[in-house]
Amino acid sequence: MSKPKFSPFETSYWFASAPPAPNCPALDQEVQADVCIVGGGYTGLTTAIELARQGVKVALLEREQIGYGGSGRNAGHCSPTFSYYPLDKVRALVGQPYAERLIKRQTGAAEQAADYIARYGIDCEWQQNGLVIGAMRPGHIASLQHKTESYNAVGAKTRVIERDEMVELTGTPRSFGGWYHPQGAHLHPLKYARGLARGAISEGVSIYAGTSALSCDKLGGKWKVGTEKGAVVADKVIFATGAYTVPGWPKLEQSFQIMPVYVAATNQLSDHARKVMLPANTSMLDGRGDFYCYKWSADNRIIASMFLMGPRGRDLDYTRKVMTAKLKWLHPQVKDEIRWDYLWFGELDMQYKTTPRLYGLAPGVVALTGLSGRGVPTGTMLGGVLSEWAMGVPETDLSLPIEPLHKAPYWMKHAPNYKLREMRAIDNLSSRIGGVTLPPFA
Questions:
Q1: Does the predicted TM-score (pTM) go above 0.90?
Q2: Where does the sequence pass through the membrane (predicted)?
């Protein structure tokens, strides 16, 4: 599914409002390290931090600048949940004992992010006021009750909320209730990424930006990661490039399917709008099949995201109309003029399991892809998984099984978009049967 080609430097609110990236010169010589990490997003940076804190010498290569990929383009939600499947399905797909360990890490990921933010003094607009998922039709409550039971069984403190509390938390009169996860949070994702980079540097990590990993070859008992003007010679190599993988290891970029998403930021809205729309400063997912996810920025802008579908995401004028109509439908009490001053695009590395996949590429070389739309919490917690591998924790004790590299199945090229359309159609039909008024552009 194609999307307009824009540089995030030109169209992203995050890039317009973040402080400069830390000074990380390009690599222009051969250097030695214990571990070479390829990719300067959340996964690579948290892995580097965890290793450096244990005395490991780490060199990290980033093709562009810190946060250029998904870590600087996402919508800024830190939802310590799985993106699509319920927990019992995650257990079946990942298999035990790995699934239980993965669930523990993912459901604790917001606390892990909060720890990094506090430890390194990262000013990233962190707000841990909860995640709310709306129930926009009566029949949705039952599935949210099951969600509550399954997440609370692993230590969360979620609850189903009634319509009155939903209005109190979010301001929308459209729901029949919802689901509240108090550990949910939101932040400025690019400030977080760049703060992690500064934290990694403070721990002794050598970060080289503007440096592509062009090759990875065996060199005696080590690995040599070649770049345009230099190389890193290391005992172990980790590829943590996610959706922005380019050929550095043969066929790694074929291990997932790209799914584009767009994010938009409004003009600065009034204090009245802030009081009546998401007054508790939560993250909000409207809960419909064709989801609309939104939150406040620190300077009174609504940041919202949706998937591309039909002309939405390709026709920018139409896209802005959809975004405005959705927001006004959810919050009819807001009388501000809504403009979308920023609109930018990102890419998700989708796996059919919708959980990360850890690939053993060769002895001493692994790759991790497939965050599948839960970038902030998942990328944050994966540093612990990859650092344990690099420190020699037995494979059977890791939180993900190590798998042979394989190409994403062909049907994945169409399945995510098909599933979105199916979910949208089912939700619209169920809403009509329940006598619920559909939002514009449903």
A1: yes
A2: none
